[in-house]
Write a structure and sequence with these properties.
It is a single chain. By secondary structure, this protein is an alpha+beta fold. The chain folds into two domains: about 10-65; about 80-295, Glutaredoxin (3-Layer(aba) Sandwich), CATH 3.40.30. The chain has helices at about 15-65, 120-140, 165-175, 180-190, 205-210, 220-225, 230-245, 275-285, and strands at about 80-85, 85-90, 110-115, 145-150, 260, 265. The chain has a six-stranded mixed β-sheet with strand order 2-1-4-3-5-6. Strand 5 and strand 6 form a beta hairpin.
């Protein structure tokens, strides 16, 4: 028996009613099967979509939240110590969750200078411009050591480009792969310092400065900079400096950059007076710091500012 209506004329009223009911039942079953297939296809598609979304989210999380990793070699104190002839004092790398280990004490007649800086900090730039010449002379002849601690405090001042973090990471890359060129590279970052509230130097521009500093292992440093190999260390070192006492100093926690330490004591003088700084160094060293050790102070830039502001 068919249900397309072509042979209904020979059926009784009851038979036609039953035929109509059967036809409706068949159509309902067909529609139910079609609906079930559609639901299965839809559910399968949604499952695939959810899996894809989860995979993408997982990839983003893995790439953005890196597990803690060792810091750069030669920065066990969270800074790199530069000695006579601008040679870095070699150390191991600080392991995750370990506390920084202070650098070894200098010989009695060698001044211990430490600077905590942010490469976008304009006050740090002023201190560098004012005192770079005399510090360079003191270090070159072995009258002083210079320990540089790069920090990332001013990321908000680079229009979302996080220049403070990128430049501090780049400094860590040089410390790790080419430590004896760190002094020159750090100086170049200040010579080419961008103004606050600008995007800062690009990675390519920073890489160009590493080449200008004649670093060794240039390719490794390039990869380190572009991959931000020491980003997690940079963040951790900045947090330590701004929340914990600075080991081996009288500073309870860093309140600003530059923070300058002379033989363990915070320098409280003007950062834009080479004479004031030289006098503070001479006073801290006593008789061990001779006139021959002191470079001629450079002209004072303006405006005047105090260290650590």
């Amino acid at each position: 028996m068919t249900y397309d209506g072509s042979s209904d004329s020979g059926l009784s009223k009851n038979e036609r009613r039953e035929a109509a009911r059967e036809k409706s039942r068949v159509l309902r079953e067909q529609q139910k099967k079609k609906d079930r297939r559609s639901r299965v296809i839809l559910q399968g598609s949604l499952a695939v979509l959810v899996i894809a979304i989860v995979a993408v989210i997982g990839l983003v999380i893995v790439n953005s939240v890196r597990p803690p990793s060792p810091g750069p070699a030669n920065m066990l104190s969270d800074g790199i110590k530069i000695g006579e002839g601008f040679k870095a004092v070699p150390t191991g790398a600080l392991q995750p969750d370990d506390s920084p280990i202070p650098s070894k004490t200098n010989a009695k007649n060698v001044i211990d200078l430490r600077v905590y800086i942010d490469y976008q900090c304009s006050y740090c730039g002023n201190f560098e411009a004012t005192n770079a010449a005399q510090i360079k002379k003191w270090v070159s002849i072995g009258a002083a050591t210079l320990e540089i601690h790069p920090l990332a405090i001013l990321d908000q001042a680079s229009l979302g480009k996080k220049y403070s973090t990128r430049s501090a990471n780049a400094a860590a890359c040089v410390a790790n792969y080419s430590p004896n060129q760190f002094f020159d590279f750090s100086a170049l970052l200040f010579t080419n310092q961008p103004k606050e509230n600008t995007e800062g130097l690009t990675d390519d521009q920073i890489i160009a400065l590493t080449r200008k500093a004649k670093v060794s292992k240039a390719d490794s440093i390039t990869t380190c900079i572009t991959d931000q190999e020491f980003k997690s260390w940079t963040n951790a070192a900045t947090e330590r400096a701004t929340t914990d006492p600075l080991a081996g100093t009288d500073v309870k926690k860093l309140a600003g950059t530059p923070t300058v330490i002379i033989n363990g004591k915070k320098y409280a003088g003007a950062i834009d007076s080479a004479a004031d700084f030289a006098n503070a160094v001479s006073k801290a060293s006593g008789d061990s710091f001779s006139e021959d050790s002191t470079a001629t102070p450079s002209p004072n830039p303006s405006p005047s500012a105090s260290a650590g502001e």
